Description:
Mean pLDDT: 96
Number of domains: 1
Number of strands: 7
InterPro entries: Nucleotide-diphossugar_trans, Trfase_1_rSAM/seldom-assoc
Structural class: alpha/beta
Protein name: Glycosyltransferase involved in cell wall biogenesis
Oligomer: single chain
Strand order of the largest sheet: 3-2-1-4-6-5-7
CATH class: Alpha Beta
Order of helices and strands: EHHEHEHEHEEHHEHH
Strand content: 15-25%
Distance between the termini: 39 Å
Amino acid sequence: MTLDVAVLVVAKAPVPGFAKTRLAREVGDVRAADLAAASLLDTLDAVIGARVAQQVVAMTGDLGRAVRGPDITAALDRFTVMPQRGDGFAARLVNAHADTFAAFGLPVLQIGMDTPQVTAGLLAESAALLTERAGRCVLGLAEDGGWWILGVPDAVSAEAIRPVPTSSRDTGRLTREALLAAGAEVLSLPTLRDVDYATDVAPVAALCPASSRFRREYLLTAGG
C-alpha cells in the first residue's frame, strides 16, 4: 500500500568545505564530504523503500563538485528535486515544507541527511502515524537535543517552527513547544543519533546494515 505522504529530504550537496562543516573541523573537508555523500545515499535508499506517494529532495549546493556526484544524481532520478530558498536554515526548512505541500497537497514528512541508520520501515511507520489523525504532527528528537524527523499535515503547521533556533540543544524541545502552541497534536517518534561530530560516526555506523554505504565508508578508514 502506498501512503499518501510526501517524504522530504533537506540536503546539502556533499562538496568538500561546504557540507558537514562541524565534522570537517575534526576530520577534514574531504573526509567529511565522503561521509556526507554516503549518508545521503543511504537516506535516499530508505526513502525509496518506504512506499510513499511522493519523494522530494530540497537541495542546496553544486552536485557537479560533490563527492559521488554522479551516484547522487542517478539516485535523484527517483525524486522531485527542488532548490532550497530563504535566508537561514529555519527559513529554508519552512519554505521546503511549503513548496512540497504546494506541489502535492499531501502531509509532509521531513528528514535530513544525517541519520543513515534510518530504515524504510521506520519511515513508513512514521508516515502512517502522521496520517492516522487529521491535524497531527510527528516529531523525532535527536540525541543531541535537536530533531531528525518532522511530519506536518500542511504548510501552515510547518510555519510554526520558523522562529525556532536551529543547531542548539533546545531545538527539539522548542520545536515541540512551537507546534503545541499552534494547536497541533504532536506525537513522539523514536530518538536517533545524528552525525554532526567525529564521535558520532562509529556509533551510527554500528547501527547501519552491512550494505550501508556509510558503514562501509567508516570501515574503510577504521581498518575494519
